[in-house]
Amino acid sequence: MSMPASAPVPATMQAIVVDDDKNLSLEDVPTPTPAPGEVLVRIAAAGINRADLMQRQGLYPPPPGITDVMGMEVSGTVAALGPDVDGPAVGDPLCALIAGGGYAQYAVVPLAQVLPVPAGLSLVDAAALPEVASTVWSTIVMDAGLSAGETLLVHGGGSGIGTHAIQVAKALGARVAVTVGSVEKGERCRDLGADIVINYREQDFAAELAGQIDVILDIMGDSYLSRNVDALAVGGRLVTIGMQGGFTGEVNVASLIGKRARIIGLNVRNRPLTGPGSKAEIVSAVAADEWPLVERGLIRPIISATLPLADAEHGQAMLDSPDSVGKVLLVPPGTGSTG
Question: Which pLDDT value is given to residue 40?
Answer without folding.
Answer: 98
